[in-house]
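Please fill in the sequence for the structure shown.

STRUCTURE ENCODING:
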């Protein structure tokens, strides 16, 4: 599988890149190349907020977006011209929102719930429909 991971050099994004590399996937990372890269990834050197045409018409089976903190961050990747089959927004804040929503009984509009536990992460995965959700 051809996978794009945003970040890829620290904590969750680094673990994510390593996880999929070990399972014989073709892993690309998009980052500013300011830190050491995981051995074996393909680097797309760019700031996520300005990927120029580096992602245009590139196809990925899966995008794992670990470094997004708001809607504009998500849009910067999705509106870059990249082609993808599935998209995962992986963010610890999402988990916090889910817990708060569960406790309060109020639903906040977000599109992915994830939990990270040592070497396994669980996500609710969605595909192209995220495009309309982020506009």
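FILLED IN BY: designer on duty
SEQUENCE:
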């Amino acid at each position: 599988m051809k996978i794009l991971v945003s970040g890829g050099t620290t904590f969750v994004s680094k673990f994510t890149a390593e996880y999929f590399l070990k399972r014989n996937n073709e892993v690309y990372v998009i980052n500013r190349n300011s830190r050491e890269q995981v051995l074996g990834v393909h680097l797309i050197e760019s700031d996520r907020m300005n990927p120029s045409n580096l992602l245009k018409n590139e196809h990925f089976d899966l995008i794992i977006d670990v470094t997004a903190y708001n809607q504009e961050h998500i849009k910067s990747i999705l509106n870059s011209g990249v082609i993808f089959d599935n998209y995962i927004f992986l963010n610890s804040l999402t988990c916090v929102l889910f817990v708060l929503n569960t406790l309060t009984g109020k639903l906040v509009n977000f599109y992915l719930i994830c939990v990270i536990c040592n070497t396994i992460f669980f996500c609710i995965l969605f595909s192209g429909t995220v495009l309309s959700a982020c506009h």
